Amino acid sequence: MFKVLKRNGNAKRGTFTTPHGTVQTPVFMNVGTLAAIKGAVSSMDLKDIGCQVELSNTYHLHLRPGDKTVYKLGGLHKFMNWDRPILTDSGGFQVFSLASMRKIKEEGVYFNSHIDGRKIFMGPEESMQIQSNLASTIAMAFDECVENPSPRDYVKRSVERTTRWLYRCKDEMARLNSMETTINKKQMLFGINQGGVYDDLRIEHAKEISKLNLDGYAIGGLAVGETHEEMYRIIEAVVPHLPEDKPIYLMGVGTPINILEGVERGVDFFDCVLPARNGRHGHVYTHSGKINLLNAKYELDGSPIEEGCECPTCKNYTKAYIRHLFKAKEMLAMRLCVLHNLYFYNKLMEDIRKALDEDKFSEFKQKTVEQFSENI
């Protein structure tokens, strides 16, 4: 399923074949938590801006419209009119982000809904069942994401429980994929490496989960309190202990520089809410760094966000117009900026793949990081 076409040091250029098409890697997955990109971006738009994989969230879709509703409507692909790969996060990150509203036990996690306060239980089996109902291409294993830094004793116990949960996820996924009523009987499963900022716990866990011969492996629990240097150190420690013939996914990361650093260390999949979130606030990415379109200096600027950019926004609109839309509180402002930012990220990945194909990744990375660092 995963084929490495070329290596530049630890950086990999590959392809990942799925039931919903082949993904060119390294790849950035566009985040549509509730089966939609925030900022009024449609699934048709995603194709126009070069998106290969869309990412949605198990916990949020379980709450609304409900995974059983999505199942009755034919699964997530049909529901949101997207025929390319979809990855669903397991709900494990909500174990971290909803810390004040949950209780963790061996059987799973008890939540209070952030919408109406009702009680919800999610364990490994429930997470797999929800993701099977959604019929995503790739299901993520249910895990606990801990804050960095956290006490070593707690992290060790958490990792051991996450491992036990992973075995349960694999068994339940196999059961579900064998059922006649399952929509996607070839649903893939990615395991998640945890261990906080403790190299030895991370390495031990990577070795353990590698034994399960899953479809792919993720590095979770980063970008949750540690420094960038700590994050890069953990990636360097973990990647050599994960299978070479499976894709590696760095969850929830990150900035363009984070992505370049991740690729250099052997990461194949990325996702992050930053491009869409920043776009909704008028912060847009260019090859010379990030700019804020709300600044007064753009009031009479008749140029696009970035000269030469082929995104739908830059081909048709000016900074002055988009700034006016924000000031007038028009929804179109957010849409145009999110479209640009997601195009920028997808094009960055395309350029990374091209540099890897041409054995020029090191030079490309150095030049791009310097451009960003000078202007951020």
TrEMBL record:
Residues 252-258, 276-280 are annotated as: RNA binding. Pathway: tRNA modification; tRNA-queuosine biosynthesis. Its EC number is 2.4.2.29. It comes from the Bacteria. One of its GO terms (cellular component) is cytosol. It is an enzyme of class 2 (transferase). SUPFAM superfamilies: tRNA-guanine transglycosylase. Its cofactor is Zn(2+). It catalyses: 7-aminomethyl-7-carbaguanine + guanosine(34) in tRNA = 7-aminomethyl-7-carbaguanosine(34) in tRNA + guanine. Pfam families: TGT. Zn(2+) binds at residues 309, 311, 314, 340. Residues 10-372 form the tRNA-guanine(15) transglycosylase-like domain. Substrate binds at residues 89-93, 143, 194, 221. The active site is at 89 (proton acceptor), 271 (nucleophile). Keywords: Glycosyltransferase, Metal-binding, Queuosine biosynthesis, Transferase, tRNA processing, Zinc. Homodimer. Within each dimer, one monomer is responsible for RNA recognition and catalysis, while the other monomer binds to the replacement base PreQ1. Catalyzes the base-exchange of a guanine (G) residue with the queuine precursor 7-aminomethyl-7-deazaguanine (PreQ1) at position 34 (anticodon wobble position) in tRNAs with GU(N) anticodons (tRNA-Asp, -Asn, -His and -Tyr). Catalysis occurs through a double-displacement mechanism. The nucleophile active site attacks the C1' of nucleotide 34 to detach the guanine base from the RNA, forming a covalent enzyme-RNA intermediate. The proton acceptor active site deprotonates the incoming PreQ1, allowing a nucleophilic attack on the C1' of the ribose to form the product. HAMAP family: Q_tRNA_Tgt (MF_00168). This is Queuine tRNA-ribosyltransferase. The gene is tgt.
